[in-house]
Amino acid sequence: MRILFAILLSAMTSLPRAAEPIVLKFSHVVAVGTPKGKAAQRFKELAEKYTGGAVRVEVYPDSSLYKDKEEFEALQLGAVQMIAPSLAKFSPLGIHSFEVFDLPFLFDNEAQLHRVTGGEVGHELLESLEVRGIKGLAFWDNGFKSFSANRPIRRPEDLRGLRMRIQSSRTLYEQMRALGAQPEVMAFSEVYQALKAGVVDGTENPHSNLYTQRMHEVQPYVTLSRHGYLGYAVLANLRFWESLPGGVRRQLARAMNEATAYANSIAAEENARAIERVRTSGMTEVIELGADERAAFRRALLPVHARMADLIGRDLIEDVYDAIDFKPQDN
Ligand code: LMR
Predict the structure, then answer these.
(1) Ligand 1: nearest atom to the Cα of 167
(2) 164 and 228 in contact (C-beta within 8 Å)?
(3) Where does residue 25 fall: left (phi above 0), alpha (psi -120 to 50 degrees), or beta otherwise?
(4) Residue 29 CB–ligand 1 contact under 6 Å
(5) Residue 209 CA, closest ligand 1 atom number
(6) d(CA 184, CA 186)
(7) pLDDT digit string (tens) for 269-320?
(8) Which runs of consecutive H residues, i.e. helices, occur in 87-134?
């Protein structure tokens, strides 16, 4: 009996064991029900399917693993393999070129934006990250931002003196200064509490973020200003990406392409649905701007482009202007 058991044991231990899946941790800071949250989940499903289970993707939403700034450190150290920070959050890396997307009143619509993200400029921006040990994989849309505050915002002067939470972008800092507001850099995960406690008076975000973070419950006014855009770069740890077997990497790239198409196809609709929900909640007054009011914001904010030229890069800004036929003097 003992011999039989020994034979069985040796047979079992000599069986080839199924290879352990490669674990890919994907950290992000927004809710599951946002465009980025949904796209990350779609990427997980496709990546696991296309690699036949050779890769297991663990998505950590809602800052559950890391907050804004920590995410970059975790990515570079290899504690996570993927993140999808907003384009306004690269300054902790000492990179300001991505802030070109923060320039106010630059893009009118998603089609213009895609000419940049899908063109040479987008490609070069992603490639520029490799020296920092980061592989830029894709751009994902969120949408155009609205101001929200504890008082109604109809004209640029209405922001004067307000403490406005911003992401860690010098361009957004200058944008708020141009309106006479006091910018406060703060991690996304802390915004709701800060608004509720009155530590800050207002903020800016696309509607999907506003709604899923319940900011409308603590912000009595939202202004549909569309004064700027917020989107994402999906990033991987370069060493991890390059260490993947070629076939696995190809399948992950395929999953990423499809998740990107999905993200960009749902973002505008998700944001439209979110502002409808804010409206019907009855907790927040949604303010529409007339053409004159919007023009006043544009006049107040366009000088930010010139102010940021040295930091972002004059040539880069010109390249984006060319790609979308933007003529600052016409505005
Ligand atoms: C913010 O911090 O306001 C946004 O960047 C959050 C996000 O990732 O959409």
Answers:
(1) 2
(2) no
(3) beta
(4) yes
(5) 9
(6) 6
(7) 999 999 999 999 999 999 999 999 999 999 999 999 999 999 999 999 999 9
(8) 110-117, 120-127
pLDDT score of 330: 61
- Cα separation, 127 vs 146, in Å, equals 30
Q: Does residue 140 contact residue 128 with C-beta atoms inside 8 Å?
A: no
Question: 166 is written with which tokens?
Answer: 């911003």
**How remote is the CA of residue 96 from the centroid of ligand 1, in Å?**
17
Using CB atoms within 10 Å of the CB of residue 14, give its burial: 0 to 12 exposed, 13 to 18 middle, 19+ buried.
exposed
Ligand 1 and 208: CB distance under 6 A: no
User: What separation in Å is there between the alpha carbon of 330 and the centre of ligand 1?
Assistant: 31
Domains belonging to the chain, first-starting first, are 2-141+231-267 (3.40.190.170), 146-228+273-324 (3.40.190.170)
**What is d(CA 320, CA 97) in angstroms, rounded to the nearest whole number?**
11
- Residue 19 pLDDT exceeds 90: no
Burial of 193 (0-12, 13-18, 19+ CB in 10 A): exposed
The string of pLDDT tens digits covering residues 53-88 is: 999 999 999 999 999 989 999 999 999 999 999 999
Assess contact for 228 and 297: CB atoms under 8 A.
no
Residues 6+ apart with CB under 8 A from 219: 148, 149, 150, 195, 202, 203, 210, 284
7, pLDDT greater than 70? no
The reported pLDDT for the residue numbered 166 is 98
Ligand 1 binding pocket includes 146 (Cβ within 6 Å) = no
Over residues 248-276, the mean pLDDT reads 98
Cβ of residue 213 lying under 6 Å from some atom of ligand 1: no
Report which ligand 1 atom has the smallest distance to the Cα of 203. Answer: 3
Please give the model's pTM, rounded to 2 decimal places. 0.93
